[in-house]
Structure formats: structure tokens, C-alpha cells
Specification:
It is a single chain. This protein is mainly α and about 220 residues long. The protein has helices spanning about 30-35, 35-60, 65-85, 120-130, 135-145, 155-170, 175-195; strands at about 10-15, 110-115. The protein has one domain (about 10-195). A two-stranded antiparallel ribbon has the order 1-2. Helix 5 packs parallel to helix 6 (about 155-170). The termini are close together. Residues about 145-150 and about 215-220 have low confidence and may be disordered.
């Protein structure tokens, strides 16, 4: 197992492993199975917003993102990514997501964001509402809405369901679709981290497709 660690030049690192075999029909009821997670995430994302506002003032006055607040928001993003991967953000695993803010090294969907020692005070004033706007427009097509975090229909969910229907009839999850879905989710998570002021590194306008980050030879085994 390789440790997933963000770096200053690539602070947001998203990885996943496609489980096999996957149930051919479980995806039909996952919308019911994730309801407990959706309830918890509803409140966690309220807390995420409040924490981000507090962190904004921390950055504005000190140039630093308070570490405890950073770890909490990272935990919310990790939790959301695991739930999305299990459900209609990818349908890439049948392993039920843990109710956890921490890093779950054994789970097939993982996320890490490098903690920034210093952040620009000036960028904190504009990046979440101005600089990120072009990305908001793009990921709006990916997601179709921004509810309970970042996953609520849109292109990502449609592609995941197409992959699930293909799986139901062929017992195979199309690799090309999987790589594309992971690339779309990776783009969304990079923008989420940037908009939440967790990094000053501007998200790239590109699809880094596949389960591993570019130049990342292996993530999970």
C-alpha cells in the first residue's frame, strides 16, 4: 500500500481502486443505503461552511489556515468522496463507507490535501468567489447542483449509471468510463479544496483521468 500525500505543486491528490467483482444490481438500492450518510453530511457541510468562514478570517489576519479547522474540512471532503464513490458519484465499490472524518487507508477511495504552511491573504479575498468562477461553470455541468457537498446528479451521475447498467449486463465496469468518471471527480475535488481556501494552487483545467494521480505509480494494493 502506497501512502497518498499531497505536495506543494500538487496539493490535492485523489485516488481510487475499482473493486471487483461488483454486484450487478446493488446500485439500484444504494440511494436508500446512503440515506444515513446524507443526513450526517447535511450537518457536516453546514459545519464545513462555518469552519471555512472562520478559517477565512484566520488566513486574513495570520496568513495561516488553523490546522484543526483544516483537518476537519479535509475530513468532510474525505467522507463526501467515499460516499460519492460508493454511490452515484462513481459506483466504484460495494464496500459501505465508514462514518469517519479520518483517513481510511483500507477504503478504495482516498483523498489527501497538503497542509499549507502559509497562504496568501490577498487571494483569500477573491479566489472563492471570483477566481474560481470559471471552474464553477465547468463543474456545474459535471454535477448538476451543489447539494450535500458536491455530488447531486449531472454528468457524473449519468455516466456512473450508464456504467452500472453496462455492468449489469456484461459483468464488467467499462474502463474508459471509469477513468473519465474519476477524472471528473478529481477536477471537482480540486476546485472544492481551492474554493474552501485550503490551497493557493489554482486548479488545472484538465481531466487527469484514471484511479491514480499523474506520476503516481500505485495507490492501493
Amino acid at each position: 500500500m502506497t501512502t497518498l500525500t499531497g505536495t506543494p505543486d500538487r496539493p490535492v491528490r485523489v485516488s481510487a481502486v475499482l473493486d471487483a467483482p461488483l454486484s450487478r444490481w446493488l446500485w439500484l438500492v444504494k440511494w436508500i443505503l446512503v440515506i444515513p450518510h446524507c443526513v450526517v453530511l447535511f450537518f457536516l457541510w453546514i459545519a464545513f461552511t462555518v469552519v471555512s468562514v472562520i478559517a477565512f478570517f484566520g488566513i486574513l489576519f495570520t496568513g495561516r489556515y488553523p490546522r484543526a479547522l483544516f483537518d476537519f474540512n479535509l475530513g468532510v471532503l474525505r467522507w463526501s468522496w467515499r460516499v460519492a464513490y460508493y454511490s452515484y458519484g462513481a459506483l466504484g465499490t460495494d464496500r459501505y463507507p465508514p462514518f469517519s472524518l479520518g483517513e481510511e487507508a483500507g477504503y478504495p477511495a482516498r483523498l489527501d490535501i497538503a497542509y499549507p504552511e502559509r497562504l496568501s491573504r490577498g487571494l483569500a479575498l477573491v479566489k472563492w468567489w471570483l477566481l474560481a468562477v470559471p471552474h464553477y461553470i465547468v463543474i456545474g455541468f459535471f454535477l448538476g447542483g451543489l447539494h450535500l457537498g458536491w455530488w447531486n446528479g449531472g454528468l457524473v451521475a449519468v455516466l456512473a449509471v450508464v456504467a452500472a447498467i453496462t455492468l449489469a449486463f456484461t459483468e464488467k465496469y467499462p474502463k474508459g468510463l471509469y477513468d473519465l468518471i474519476l477524472g471528473l471527480n478529481r477536477w471537482v475535488l480540486r476546485v472544492a479544496a481551492y474554493a474552501a481556501l485550503m490551497t493557493d494552487t489554482y486548479p488545472p483545467f484538465r481531466l487527469d483521468m484514471g484511479g491514480t494521480e499523474p506520476s503516481e505509480p500505485e495507490v492501493l494494493s
